[in-house]
Q: What sequence folds into this?
């Protein structure tokens, strides 16, 4: 199971920062790829960033340079530092995992590849 460590969500003003976290069961270590996806009302769920067990990362173009995904293998926790947030980046952030690394499958934004999903945490960015 994937469990989010921030139930209840978080709010921040535009330009601010947040750092959601996700606890990941040991089943998904060491070989896997896990990351964050965003679901906004009326919009399709989309990939934000992923990291695999080899430390390789991939980011959606709009967040490059502002978001940093990381993981603590000892704690089995996934993080995503989000800086300079915009109002459009509000939504439910979900962590997810697949059992294929980025090296084996570089394409990472296909939702159906991810068989495990967290419950999601609400992020609200206000103007």
A:
């Amino acid at each position: 199971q994937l469990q989010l460590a921030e139930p209840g969500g978080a709010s921040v003003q535009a330009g601010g920062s947040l750092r959601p976290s996700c606890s990941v069961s040991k089943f998904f270590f060491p070989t896997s790829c896990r990351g964050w996806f965003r679901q906004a009302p009326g919009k399709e769920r989309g990939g934000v960033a992923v990291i695999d067990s080899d430390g390789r990362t991939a980011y959606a173009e709009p967040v490059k340079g502002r978001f940093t995904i990381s993981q603590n293998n000892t704690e089995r926790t996934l993080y995503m530092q989000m800086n300079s947030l915009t109002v459009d980046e509000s939504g439910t952030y979900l962590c997810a995992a697949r059992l294929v690394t980025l090296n084996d499958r570089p394409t990472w934004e296909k939702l159906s590849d991810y068989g495990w999903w967290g419950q999601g945490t609400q992020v609200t960015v206000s103007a």
